[in-house]
Each structure stands twice: as C-alpha cells, then as structure tokens.
Amino acid sequence: MTAVLEIAGLRKTYKSRRRGARQALDGFDMTVEAGQVHGFLGPNGSGKTTTLRTLLGLIKPNGGRMAILGQEVPAALPVVAGQVGAIVESPQFFPHFTARDTLSLLADAGRVPQTRVMEVLELVGLQERAKERVKTYSLGMKQRLAVASALLKNPKLLILDEPANGLDPGGIREMRTLMRDLAASGMTVVLSSHILGEIQLICDSVTIISRGRRVAAGPVAEVLAQHSGGGLRVRLEAVTDLPVAAELLTRAGAQVSTHADHLMVDGVDKPAAVTRVLAERDLYVSELAPVTVDLESVFLELTGTAPMPGQHRQVDESVVVGADAPAQGGWGV
Amino acid sequence: MSLFKAEFRRLLKRRFVRYMTLGGLLVLIAVAVGTFATNHKIGPAEFAAAEQQAEQQYRENVRWATEEKKQCEQAKASGNFDANRFPADCSQISPAPRDAFEARWFLPSTFDFRRQFEDMITAWAAILALVAFVAGASFIGAEWSTGGMMNLLLWRPQRLRVLLTKLGALLTGLLGVALVTAAAWVGAFWAIASLRGTTEKTTSGVWQSFGLTGLRGLAVVLVAGAVGFALASLGRHTAMALGGALGVMVVGQFGLGIVLNMAGVTFAEAWLLPTYLLAWMQKKVVLQDWDACNATYTGECKPATMEIVWQDGGTLLAVGLALTLGAALWMMRRRDVA
C-alpha cells in the first residue's frame, strides 16, 4: 500500500511576546495509506487543526517533513492542491454569496468545470437551497457546503476537520455513508472528529494525538486490541467460590480483581489457562468473556482526558508521551 | 487566468462594492446636475438684462446718496449730528460713478469649459478615489474576516499570486469604472458648457492638458484603491483600512494642521497630505507666508512663497503605495493563516 499522506517529526511553536512560546506540535508523525478512511483524533488543543493547517500550507512549520501523494509539501502544494479537498475547522464562507456562487467562484479559481457545482450540491443535499445566501444557512447546512467545496475538485485526498459538527442525526448518517462511498470509489479520507463512535464505525485506521505528539496509530482494530489489555471477565456457577478462584488465579500469575458477581482477570496468555486452573480444583466457569474496549475509552486512556469526579480538567491537561517531553505544554514554556 | 476570472467575478458580485460604486456615480451625477442647474448661457438678452440691472443699481445708489446727504445736512442744521454716521463735510456724500457698476457683475454664472473643466477633473478623481479606497479595503478585508481568503488559499496555495491577482482584479475593475465615468464626465460637462456656458478656445493644447490631468487623476484613483486594499490586507479587516484612513485624516491632518498653526510653523500646509494631492492634480500649489515681507523695488510688500509641484505629490503617492503594498505582500508571505 502507498502512503497518500506522510508526516514525520512535525514541529510548530507559537510565539507570543506576552505569553512566551507554546509547542503546538512536538515531533508529530502520521501516515495515511491510500484508499483508507483515516481518523485523526485528539483532545481540544492537542494540535489536530495545527497539523491540518500546516499540511495545507496555511501555517509555516518550524521543522519536520510532510508529503502528500508522494510530493513534499509545502513546496509542492501548488502541484498537489488540485488533488486535495479540505475543510479546516468551522466552515467559513462569505455570508452574502449564495452557495452556488460560492462554489462557482471556487470552481473558477481551481479550473473545475462549472457542471461540477450542482453535482456536489446535490451530493450533500443542498441542491434545493443552492440559490440562498450562505448567511441564511444553519451550521449543519454550512457544514454540508464546506464538504461540497472540498469535494468540488473530486480529490484523491479528502481532509475533513469535524465534518459532522452541527449536523442532525440524519445528516451524520448521510455523512457516514458518503465517507464510505468516497473511500469505496478510491478516495482517501482523513477525518478529524470528536464523535468517536462515528470514527470507530467509519474509519479503517486512526492516529491519536496528544499535546502535539502521536500517542497511537494504526488500524482501528489493532489500536483497540493493543489497549484492551487482554482482560477476561470470569463468572462461576457459585458466587461463593469467587474468593478461592481469585486466589488460585493469582497464584497462577494472573492479576485478578474481585467484583460482586465476577472476577476481572488480566495477564493470562490464553483464556483456556483460566478454565484449566479452576477446573483442577472443581471450580466450573459459567462465563468466560474477553473484555472489549471502544475507541472512546482507548482515547480517554491514551490522552488522559477522562473526566474525574470533582475536577475541572483544563484544555492543556492531557498526556505527554516520550521521556524527553516537556513538563508543560501550555503558554509560558 | 482562471484565478483572475474568479476574482474579477467575485469583485462584480460583491454587494458593498456595487453600492459604493453606485454611491460614487450618484455623487458624480449630483455634481453634474448641480453645475447644470446653477449655470446659464450668456447671450445678448442676458447682457441686456445685466446692463439694465447695473443701471438700476446705479440709480439706487444715486437715490441713496442723495437721501443720505439730505439727512446729513438736516442733522447738522438741527444740532443732532452723529459723527459716527455722517462725514464732517456732507458734500463728501456722493454716489459712485456710473462705470463702477459693471454689467458683468450681474451676469448669471456660466460654465467656461476651458477654464473650469480642470477643477471638475479633480472633483471626479477625488470622488472616485474615495470609492476606490473603500471598495479596495472591503474587497480584501471582508475576505480575510469571513474566512474566504483561507478557503481560497486551500484551492490556490500561492499566497503572493492570490493577493496580487486579487489586486489586479480590483485595479482592472477600478480602471473600467474610471474610464467609463471619465468619458461620461467629459461628455456631460461638454454638454453643460454647450447648453449653459461656453466651449470656446478649447484648443488641442487644452485637451492635451485635460488628458494629462485626467491621467494623474486616474493614478490617484488606482493608488487609493491599492492602498485601501493593502491596509485592509495588513489588518485582515476592512475596518483596519477605514479606521487607519480616518485616524490619519483626523489626527494626522486636522490635528497636525491645528498644532502647526498654533506653533506658528511657516508653510504649515507643506506638512499636510491634501496639499500634495492638490499639487499632483493641479501641477503646482503655491503656499504663502503672510507674516514674511519680501519688499519689491516699488516698495510693495509681497509674502514669502513656497512651491509644491506635481513631482512632489507623485513621489509621496509612490512612496505611500510602495510602503503599504510592500508591507502587505511581506506579511502575506510570512504570516500564519489561522
């Protein structure tokens, strides 16, 4: 498989006379293979939008390497821009133009046939409202228009930052179907979103960023498997046997935690080892199930952003990876 | 070319630009209509009426002088003489001579194309320059503030090319409006002069002079548009250019003018921008210092003068344009678009 998007060691520091310097990207790496729907996840302020803006030439990096469709960017951006459709953060359009005018002007600027304008408006469900001014649109409609503008070029790489923002449930489902159809047609899609359930449903692979560094990357199933911990939920025929079973499994080298009606067992190679140890002492298992995790829990674990009772987490309070990571990532470093 | 086409279309679609242009056109029309309404053709009938008015004015003056003289003599005789009202010698009260009442004073205003059209070119340039400045500022400022510029850069990630193409589209639009209105302006005032004045002595040399003044006016219009564009691009908002211009006018011109006058600075106008713009348009502005006396051999006291010529105005315009546009291009190259 060829990489459509490659980022290696990307660094960006924002400097402010008043607040000092803030390291927004600190050696960030990311690879997206062709034909995939790739989820790009991270808490607020983790560097997602900075990464996308840098990739698209809107922000100048302080270091690192980036390539799109095999071409080094930002140097080759004018060459590859025609094959990259993107929306970055919230959709922004001149409010007094109609949707059709907005796309028509972009089509002119990008040498795209005007016939494509109505095609994409139909694709995102805005055909009927094409002649209305953008300022009359809801956030969801603006979001659809933004997606339409990104699709106008019929790009090979589609980068969407929070495309489901403001969409109603039907719209979210339509967007999901659209992403899948686009990927099936050979388009590579990079999707940044906080709706992790959606990402898990749509994406083939993910990259998770925290405080400007990559904390996880790979196919969704692999990332989930890596962080599921291989835990097992064990129930016995008699609840009264749980303490004995816990002692036996601990002696066998497993980490066991006892709950009211079951045990949670970690650190065993194979589930069969559990049944064997218990059966040797005439303890019979009524349920033996691997504990599955979802993307949301993995995300919260990896980024350290799970809400804690009684605490108000600040935007920059997330996980820093790497031994040489700075102690603080916020303003004033 | 596709980018230029898109930007030119965008310029034509911008509602604010349309309204500003329409506003400018209405002001131009108002000036032309006002000139038409306040001027009249001078013929034998107008001369005769003026002569009659001059005669009447003379007679009234004779009547008044006679009455005053009579009252003066009566006051003297009654002992109620008011020295503040009458001269000591009542015979000194006499009417002005007949030739002091010239008929030309009573002629209606008439539009002399050769003599007055040059000022009209300056008015045309001033009105269009204002439109150009605001339209230029809005064209790029609104794009920055609404995120349209960022969107465009995603499509054409060549910052300087995008900015310069936008400027090119703006200047093309301004040039079009300027040429059309200039032609209409000449036509309108030629018609006004024909109907309500005179077009006599409009030689080819006069036309050439008008042409050169018109070209200088066109330069002012284009520079105003480019400076408005550059300032709004620097501040990424239309208000940056408008606020900056207002600040320069209020603080830098009115305020500075007051301070310089209070300080008694010689040739205070030499520090003010409008003087240079006027010199650019009128080829020369002569400033006079009435506090200085340059005695002539006849003993006459003449004020000291200072000439500001069109080259001075041109240099100022060029430097202002280079600084603002250069800064806008430099910022465009290096800034993060967020």
From TrEMBL, chain A:
Keyword Transport part of the UniProt annotation: yes
SUPFAM superfamilies (UniProt xref): P-loop containing nucleoside triphosphate hydrolases
Gene3D superfamilies assigned: P-loop containing nucleotide triphosphate hydrolases (3.40.50.300)
InterPro entries listed in its UniProt record: AAA+_ATPase (IPR003593), ABC_transporter-like_ATP-bd (IPR003439), ABC_transporter-like_CS (IPR017871), P-loop_NTPase (IPR027417)
Keyword annotations of the record: ATP-binding, Nucleotide-binding, Transport
Domain ABC transporter residues, every copy: 5-236
Any GO MF annotation of the entry: ATP binding
Family statement drawn from the similarity comment of this UniProt entry: Belongs to the ABC transporter superfamily.
Name of protein: ABC-2 type transport system ATP-binding protein
Organism: Micromonospora pattaloongensis
TrEMBL record, chain B:
Transmembrane segments: 16-37, 121-142, 163-193, 213-234, 246-273, 313-332
The keyword Zinc appears for this protein: no
Keyword Transmembrane part of the UniProt annotation: yes
Keywords: Membrane, Transmembrane, Transmembrane helix
GO cellular component, one term: plasma membrane
Protein name from the UniProt record: ABC-2 family transporter protein
GO molecular function terms listed in the Swiss-Prot or TrEMBL record: ABC-type transporter activity
